[in-house]
Amino acid sequence: MEEKLTERLYELFIQHPEVTTDSRRCPAGSMFFALKGESFDGNYFAAKALETGSAVAVVDDSAVVPAGDERYVLVPDVLQALQALAAHHRRQFKGPVLQVTGTNGKTTTKELLAAVLSRRYRVLYTQGNLNNHIGVPLTLLRLRPEHELAIIETGANHPGEIAFLTDIVQPDYGLITNVGRAHLEGFGSFEGVKRTKGELYDFLGQKPTAQLFVNASSKDILGMLAERDIDINTGKCIVYAHEGEKTDALCYGAVMRCDPMLHIRWTGRDGVSYEAATQLIGDYNLDNVLAAVAAGLHFGISAKDIAAALEGYHPSLGRSEYRKTVHNELIIDAYNANLTSMMAALANFRNIEQPKKMVILGDMRELGTASEAAHKTVVEAVFDGGRIERAWFVGENFEEALKGVCKPDGIEITCFKDVEAVKQEIEKTQPDGWLILIKGSNSTKLHQLPDIL
User: Fold this and answer.
1) What is the pTM (predicted TM-score) of this model?
2) How many Å apart are CA 418 and CA 420, to the nearest integer?
3) For 21-25, which contacts have Cβ atoms below 8 Å and span 24 or more sequence positions?
4) How many percent of the chain have pLDDT more than 90?
5) Which site from 32, 299, 374, 378 is most exposed, i.e. has the minimal number of CB atoms within 10 Å?
């Protein structure tokens, strides 16, 4: 985007610092950016946005601009203009910016980081999962003079996306939660996933003052750092690890129990141990919690405040959420699913002591050629080791995976075409007295089930 045009937009932004891309929600005095989608063109809603509250409309179709109406700003590409404006605004911010990415746990980790760091600082952080090429610029444009620290979540489905977003975010700190087998359709392979997530390390490695929060208990993370000649034993890295790891970490942690809520212990460099009883489900959340502990310690948050923040955080958006209903106890992790997260959720679920255990698992999407093998692996994991009495599989991928698989005795198995079929079954048979794990890709819509279970 031409520099002079970005400067002009920034002058308007200073006067009208609230940005919207939705013509149905145009706060008074806001700037409306007329983005395009597969089924809509925001240019045709610019007039409506101006009528309902916006003071400025940024468009890229001259046909919608009335002659002499200075409320319209015509640009070559609205999306690029939004991204360039956000990048320029971020460069005016003098506080530390922490960028979070990873295959699993990045949203939970971001939320935990925000909970901990907000104990001392005025923090801007990504709302929900607005972590893509539109959400990241919109988040950065929410930066205000009162903010002291920013936490920006970034996601990716294809190679190059993290590099692109990192160039906008310009982070001072970076954290990769983990790398797993997700979005393989876009990345091509697990190695493609690691290369793309590692684009954050590529940027931070070249920025002398930047630092990385590093999970030293992840062999994949350590391997990615080694490939880039980044030594975790230098001041470049702020290290956290599981108890027992032979590394110089800022903090070490361990699961004390998970019944089903995760209760952890961490020990800092002073040798003093602390505990926190979180409201998170799953021992696989230990790494997410430890990342928040490490960030808290690094930024001067007291152990007491760290523990209070961890214990006060309640997960939402269907991530590692525990809910007790009139009929059942639910573990809801239905926002996303891939082979790595599915296997971790099943392993944790199997270890929970409960007399009646049931799973409702939806298809894992965007796995490409690895999809068939991944779904069979999950089916075999459900069948292996017992302790699950009822299994409902949802979607055509699981239906295919069940073919030819030896079904063990002692487990009731049902396959459903979609979530609507599951709803009908619940209406007819209403499960009662079960501990139920609900997990699947967001597109399977299993998040519709908790309210009727």
Assistant:
1) 0.86
2) 5
3) 21/82, 21/134, 21/138, 23/48, 23/49, 23/52
4) 68
5) 299
